[in-house]
Design a protein that fits this description.
Strands 6-8-9-11-10 form a five-stranded mixed sheet. The protein is an alpha+beta fold and 457 residues long. It is 53% helix and 14% strand.
């Protein structure tokens, strides 16, 4: 599978889609602007047709300001020249389509011309023309007459107002388009890599990773994806290793059992109690292994039931030590309990807690040489199982709670055990809210601590 080609094709596809999306957004904004302008013009038209005296367009303001400043209409024909340069042509066109009447109705300016033959004559205003009164100091000083069609005049009248807004909206739209294109370029490549890697993972390539790049939000997404892919790869690797280890652990007792039974059937071994007992012992080993696997699977899936109640940690530890005293004596090992607290009441499942402590004791008894010592110490909400055995190499300490892990030499398959005891103890302790820690003792040997942070009265 070519990941780079998939990234390129995905990038092109996403780029096209985002570009179309930006164009749609820009088009929607422009359409909305046009609609707003049309509605504004329509509202203006309705207002002008009903109460034209309430409307004061910019040209009217300019004329009234001119009269208010001079007290007459002298020089009024050049009023548009005092508008901003961008608006001069607009106001000049408006001015050339209007006539200015004084307070008596006589023409002052005819179509923008103050020297025409019609100036000074009384103007007969028709019903088809739109007129707006001009006032200064609350007195009517004139009338502005528009010669264009009455229906279209409101649109042209407010063109100087709508024009700048339309131009501004267009510039903002172009700016938004440029920003959108830059965002597309900045987002497309990292996002396409995430999509291509996700497709690769879905097809079984769990080693696919994405280079962290792009905006902070996209970086968080990429980092989360990489963590997810790493977790999937680790779980898949652990699953494969578990299957291989289970097969290996089952093969040894099955091979021994098969060899003994075939020997009995073929007449190589007599069918006496000694040979049958050896085969039966292998079935017990298989049964323990299967039960350990079942218990560990339930604990890891958080489906193991805990009967939580108030227990005395000292009593639980004492009972666990009593169970293995005989085995310790048989191996010529010293197993003892040291209590550094009068009573340690806490909330826990007594059976599961005793099982966890027992697994730690079994592990210590298995690897401590003859004549060694195993000490179980009870403190306030703590149980410590320590020995004076060979200990564990520092680089292997983080691995001792891993399923089927055994160290070299002393912790080999020949020494017995399935390699699940410490893993089960860890799950049983953590399932009850505790913590389990292993470390080498300065004076030699291994020390495993079970720590609970909460107690019960």
């Amino acid at each position: 599978m070519n990941l780079h080609s998939d990234v390129d094709s995905t990038a092109r596809l996403i780029g096209q889609r985002l570009f179309v999306l930006v164009l749609r957004v820009l088009g929607s904004v422009l359409v909305a602007l046009v609609v707003l302008l049309v509605l504004a013009a329509w509202g203006t038209l309705s207002w002008l047709n009903t109460t034209p005296e309430n409307i004061q367009p910019l040209l009217v303001y300019m004329l009234e300001s001119h009269y208010d400043a001079r007290g007459s209409w002298d020089g009024v024909q050049h009023v548009y020249e005092r508008s901003p340069s961008l608006m001069v042509s607009m106001y000049q066109r408006r001015w050339n389509e209007t006539s200015l009447l004084d307070s008596t109705g006589k023409i002052v300016v005819d179509h923008g011309n103050a020297g025409g033959t019609a100036v000074g004559q009384v103007y007969a205003l028709s019903e088809s023309e739109l007129s707006l009164p001009l006032s200064a100091n609350s007195q009517k000083v004139g009338t502005l007459v528009f010669h264009a069609n009455r229906l279209l005049e409101p649109l042209l009248l407010f063109a100087p107002v709508f024009g700048p807004f339309s131009l501004l909206a267009l510039l903002l739209g172009v700016l938004a388009l440029l920003i959108g294109l830059r965002l597309v370029r900045r987002l497309v490549v990292p996002l396409s890599e995430v999509i291509a890697a996700a497709q690769s993972v879905s097809e079984g390539n769990l080693a696919a990773r994405v280079k962290v790049d792009g905006p902070s939000e996209l970086r968080i997404l990429i980092d989360s994806f990489n963590q997810m892919a790493e977790s999937l790869e680790r779980n898949d690797r652990e699953r494969r290793e578990l299957l291989a280890m289970v097969a290996h652990e089952l093969r040894t007792p099955l091979s021994v059992l098969r060899g003994r039974l075939e020997g009995i059937v073929d007449g190589i071994y007599p069918a006496d109690q000694a040979h049958i007992a050896g085969a039966l012992e292998e079935t017990y080993l298989l049964g323990r292994l299967v039960e350990d696997l079942r218990l560990l699977a339930l604990a890891e899936a958080r489906q193991l039931h805990f009967d939580i109640k108030t227990v005395d940690l000292v009593a639980v530890a004492q009972h666990a030590v009593d169970l293995f005293c005989a085995e310790a004596a048989e191996k010529q090992l010293q197993l003892e309990l040291q209590v550094e607290v009068g009573s340690a009441k806490m909330q826990a499942d007594p059976q599961r807690l005793e099982q966890a402590i027992g697994n730690l004791i079994v592990n210590a008894l298995r690897y401590v040489p003859s004549g060694g010592q195993v000490v179980v110490t009870v403190r306030d909400r703590q149980v410590i199982v320590s020995d004076n055995g060979p200990g564990v190499r520092a680089q292997d300490l983080p691995l001792i709670f891993t399923r089927f892990w055994r160290g070299e030499n002393a912790r080999s398959r020949h020494a017995g055990g399935s390699g699940l005891g410490l893993a089960i103890a860890k799950e049983l302790v953590e399932g009850q809210g505790g913590q389990i820690i292993a470390q080498n003792r300065p004076q030699g040997g291994l020390e495993v601590m079970i720590i609970f942070t909460l107690s019960s009265d």
